[in-house]
Write a structure and sequence with these properties.
Layout lengths: L37 E4 L19 H10 L4 E3 L10 H10 L3 E8 L8 H19 L7 E5 L6 H5 L12 H22 L2 E5 L9 H10 L5 E6 H7 L8 H7 L4 E6 L4 H10 L3 H6 L13 H10 L5 E4 L10 H14 L3
Parallel strand pairs: 1-2, 1-8, 2-3, 3-4, 4-5, 5-6, 6-7, 7-8
Helix pairs in contact: 2-3, 3-5, 8-11
Length: 343
């Protein structure tokens, strides 16, 4: 059975006018990203978010796929269950019509709650069976992206981007959380052959660098890989401008099997802290901005991925709330930014 591409273990800007890369975009001069990386996008960039109550009047999936393909992407995430067709033949036909691969599917589970593990596993298996049928024969097999049930805990949602240690799980809850993730990953792989990767995420219980470290320490690397999200890492660090993305890519090298390319606007993040915005208000105000307009140095990201031999997907995600932003135009500019850097 094919193992998803992963990194090998290793040791270890300001907002600008539209169309102008910030210092965070980098210039790529010190080395190009690896040639094997393929670029995808996701329904969340069109406002189709995996949060309860956020699915009202989303951009129709066929329009989203048309625009995604037209702006230069090779693959897509599935999005929330039911957003795109859930019959394998129908979904594969929609993807083939546009020359797209299915990269992954996002499955949120309230892992700190033991009572949520069984229904979470049922949902994960339903999604994984579709992934196996649609993406199992791709050059880069599809994967299941497991996450906390983000945005549902009032304290974590209210303090996203400025979480303190006192707001975290205790040792017992961390163990429950980790065991739940392993149980789901083990069953999903045994029954479908699909690998499970965990997505750290703001407004969930694995947000800060310390929380990511503890989760990885508690889980089996052969069972649970990591989705590294540049924007969530920066915002979740508490100070996006000083978040060391390169060091994080080195530290998590042996676990990273998927990378989400997301930028973080430091000005919006500072306003979020000062005004004590919750997670959704921060997203509404554009804390996850277009690539190259925030603090993330994507040239540096490419160099570190190249140093560790990464050859998987880079999935652009510019989370916007339904009905906001200009998704197609943003998708085109995001792809152009990555192209300038050699992706």
């Amino acid at each position: 059975m094919t193992t998803p591409p992963q990194l090998t273990p290793a040791t270890g800007g300001a907002t600008t006018a539209p169309g102008s890369p910030s210092p965070g975009a980098g210039d790529g001069a010190a080395g190009a990203p690896p040639a094997g990386i393929r670029i995808a996008n996701a329904p969340c960039s069109w406002g189709a978010l995996e949060f309860e109550g956020m699915a009202a009047d989303p951009v129709p999936y066929d329009r989203m796929l048309d625009e995604l393909a037209a702006t230069g992407y090779d693959g897509t995430d599935l999005g929330d269950w039911g957003y795109m067709p859930t019959e394998a033949t129908d979904l594969r036909a929609e993807l083939d019509r546009r020359g797209l691969d299915l990269v992954s599917a996002f499955v949120p589970v309230a892992l700190r709650d033991p009572a949520a593990h069984a229904p979470g596993l049922d949902h994960a298996l339903r999604v994984a069976r579709l992934l196996a049928l649609v993406g199992g024969e791709q050059a880069t097999p599809t994967c299941l992206v497991l996450a906390d049930d983000n945005g549902t805990d009032p304290v974590r949602t209210r303090h996203a981007g400025r979480v303190t240690a006192e707001m975290g799980l205790d040792a017992g809850d961390r163990e429950t959380f980790a065991r739940g993730a392993e149980e789901i990953a083990r069953a999903v792989y045994a029954q479908t052959g699909v690998r499970t990767l965990f997505h750290h995420h703001c407004a969930g219980f694995v947000e800060t660098p310390a929380e990511i470290d503890r989760f990885l320490d508690l889980t089996d690397p052969d069972l649970v890989g990591l989705v590294f999200d540049t924007g969530h890492y920066a915002f979740g660090s508490g100070d996006p401008a000083s978040a060391d993305i390169g060091a994080a890519l080195d530290r998590y090298a042996g676990r990273i099997r998927l990378v989400h390319a997301k930028d973080c606007d430091p000005i919006v993040a500072r306003h979020s802290t000062a005004a004590r915005w919750d997670y959704f208000t921060s997203v509404r105000h554009g804390v996850f901005c277009e690539l190259g307009r925030g603090v993330i140095d994507f040239a540096l990201v490419g160099r570190h991925l190249g140093q560790h031999g990464y050859g998987g997907w880079l999935v652009v995600e510019q989370d916007v709330l339904p009905g906001l932003g200009t998704p197609r135009e943003s998708a085109a500019r995001n792809r152009a930014t990555l192209s300038r850097l050699g992706f």
